Amino acid sequence: MEKQTETTPLDLRSAEWASLTDGYGGAEKIPALLQDLRRGDAEALDDLYGHICHQGSIYPASVAAFPHLVSLAATMTSPDLRAGVLSLAASIHESAGLDEELKASPYVAAFHAVVPAALVMATADLRQVEDTVSGIYLLKAAASFAGFAGVARVLGGFANEEFCLACPACGVELYVWPVAQGLSVAAEDPVFTPTAKTLLVIAGPADNSPHLAAFAWLQAQADALPLLDDIAFRLPFLFGSACCAGCGHVFSLMDALLSDAVD
């Protein structure tokens, strides 16, 4: 068995897996699922989602499994399976910084050690995608690995073609939709109320925005890929200012989305 060092991933033969927890309890099944995934078993990827990213929640076993996911992605020849593995790894990475217990994991150094490799893979694969939805999820993954985990949690709204949040002032649920002019805000779901009052989002970010680095990084990635032209056009609005269609309160759209993503 490989000698354990601070940045060495937990050996798949280690009995320590049984002492870790995942979405269903003990994590003793994780090594076998990772081995199945190495053999190209797509069902193992679905099972791993349930165990280590159950309904978006992560666990001590998630941190320990993360380096193995990155290592596996590097060996995969199937673009779809590799993208799926990177997306799972990114989902874990997005949430890991929010949990104080996970920050204290003995496997956190091994977790952080492989993030640069994950970023290289995600950005390289982003240049090869052939459909917009795959591009959005790889952009989301790359953003997390690049250090913008909070913003990455928000980007899935582009795939859903809708962002939902609560007004920071009055608490009413707001719906942000893509429109020809960028993004619009409504206090009623436009699916069920097509005549709902909508207000346009003002493009940003402001010069004093704490999200300037994230915006610049995302814009550079999206601009380099014609497939993501629509995303590149809408990014300034995602980082812009919105007005609540219910109470008229003006707020930073990204700040409000980040707050909702954490809550």
Q: What is the average per-residue confidence, as pLDDT, rounded to a whole number?
A: 91
Integer-rounded radius of gyration = 20 Å
Measure the end-to-end span: 41 Å
What are the low-pLDDT stretches, counting only 5+ consecutive residues below 50? none
Biggest sheet architecture: 4 strands, antiparallel
The ordered string of helix (H) and strand (E) elements is: EEHHHHHHHHHEEEEHHEEH
Treating each run of at least 4 consecutive H or I residues as one helix, how many helices? Answer: 12
Overall, the morphology is globular
Helix content: 40-55%
Query: How many domain units?
Result: 2
Number of strands: 8
Strand proportion: 5-15%
Strand order in space, largest sheet: 3-4-5-6
| Structure class | alpha+beta
Topology:
Blueprint: E1 21-22, E2 25-26, H1 30-38, H2 42-52, H3 60-75, H4 79-96, H5 100-103, H6 108-113, H7 115-126, H8 132-145, H9 149-160, E3 163-166, E4 173-179, E5 182-186, E6 198-200, H10 212-223, H11 229-238, E7 241-243, E8 250-252, H12 253-262
Antiparallel strand pairs: 1-2, 3-4, 4-5, 5-6, 7-8
Supply database-style keywords.
2 domains; two-stranded antiparallel sheet; single chain; 263 residues; globular; four-stranded antiparallel beta sheet; alpha+beta; 51% helix
What does this structure look like?
By secondary structure, the protein is an alpha+beta fold. The chain has two domains: 15-113; 158-262, no CATH class. The chain is 51% helix and 11% strand. It is built from twelve helices and eight strands. The chain has helices spanning 30-38, 42-52, 60-75, 79-96, 100-103, 108-113, 115-126, 132-145, 149-160, 212-223, 229-238, 253-262, and strands at residues 21-22, 25-26, 163-166, 173-179, 182-186, 198-200, 241-243, 250-252. It has a four-stranded antiparallel sheet. A hairpin with a 2-residue loop joins β4 and β5 (182-186). α4 (79-96) packs across α9 (149-160), α7 (115-126) runs antiparallel to α8 (132-145) and α9 packs across α12. It is globular. The model has no long low-confidence stretch (mean pLDDT 91).
